[in-house]
Amino acid sequence: MTDTDEPAPFPAADVPAAWPVTGTRLEWQSGWVIDVRTDTVQAPDGQQLTRQVVEHSGAVGIICLDDQDRVLVVRQYRHPVRHELVEPPAGLLDVDGETYHVAAARELFEEGHVRASQWSVLVDATTSPGMTSETIRIYLARGVTDVPVGERHVGTGEEAGMRTGWIPLEDLVEAVLAGRLHNPTMVMGVLAAAAAKRRGWRTLRPADSPWEFRDQMLAATAADGPSVDHARP
């Protein structure tokens, strides 16, 4: 440390915190991917703040790397942004009782038409913490084998006819940094994979590692109790 350097004001780690929720109103309920609620939150100084929250089931994503350091990608239409995005295989945590790494293996099978024998946790993230409870765990999958054509999952909706391909990891890193790729799972995943590779993969966590951030978030939300007002706007 030089004379001009200053110590960090706090550790480089997120910490649990739950301001009291004094009221909740369910604004919209889809019964599928998202619900929207309005919380009244009491700040430490006593202020009553109103915050809208998009409730989300959570997701997993997969950076699937072959023995040539190529990443399996899909091209999927995303209607809200009016683009076809280059993305890694990913999907919702929407199967009751399914563990995170089993969900990731299922999504890799369904979207990528491959299986992997080696799984590690690459990075955990919350996608837009100012508005949604969505969390995502991104895995690194290696030891890849193709699923026979007759056994492959047939997608529906945007996944019907979805194209797959393999792109070198470093080419994806360059595309992210050049602003040509925008899917957050892709951006976080390939940058994390490149960083982990430079460190000899020693930062990888076991596939069944606890997801403490998500557990703490879910516990804090449950502690708020049932919504006090489910009236529609």
Describe this structure in words.
This protein has 233 residues and is α+β, with helices and mostly antiparallel strands. It folds into 2 domains: 21-56, no CATH class; 59-209, Nucleoside Triphosphate Pyrophosphohydrolase. It is 21% helix and 36% strand. It has 4 helices and 11 strands, in the order E-E-E-E-E-E-E-H-E-E-E-H-H-E-H. It has helices at 100-112, 169-177, 184-198, 212-223, and strands spanning 21-29, 34-42, 48-56, 59-64, 70-78, 83-87, 90-92, 114-126, 135-146, 163-168, 205-206. Strands 7-4-9-8-11 form a 5-stranded mixed beta sheet, sandwiched between helices. The chain has a 3-stranded antiparallel beta sheet with strand order 1-2-3, with no helix packed on it. Strands 6-5-10 form a 3-stranded antiparallel beta sheet. The longest helix has 15 residues, at 184-198. The radius of gyration is 20 Å and the shape is globular.
What is the fourth-level CATH superfamily of the largest domain? Answer: Nucleoside Triphosphate Pyrophosphohydrolase
Encode the helix/strand succession as letters. EEEEEEEHEEEHHEH
Number of domains: 2
Question: Could you tell me the mean pLDDT?
Answer: 90
Portion of residues within helices: 10-25%
Task: Tally the beta strands.
Answer: 11
Enter the CATH topology name of the largest domain.
Nucleoside Triphosphate Pyrophosphohydrolase
Low-confidence stretches are: 228-233
CATH class (first level) name of the largest domain: Alpha Beta
| Percentage of residues in strands | 35-45%
Q: Counting H and I runs of at least 4 residues, what is the number of helices?
A: 4
- Which value, in Å, is the CA radius of gyration? 20 Å
Q: What general outline do the C-alpha atoms trace? A: globular
CATH architecture tag of the largest domain: Alpha-Beta Complex
**If strands are numbered along the chain, what order do they take across the biggest sheet?**
7-4-9-8-11
* Secondary structure category: alpha+beta
Distance between the termini: 55 Å
Q: Main beta sheet: strand number and arrangement?
A: 5 strands, mixed
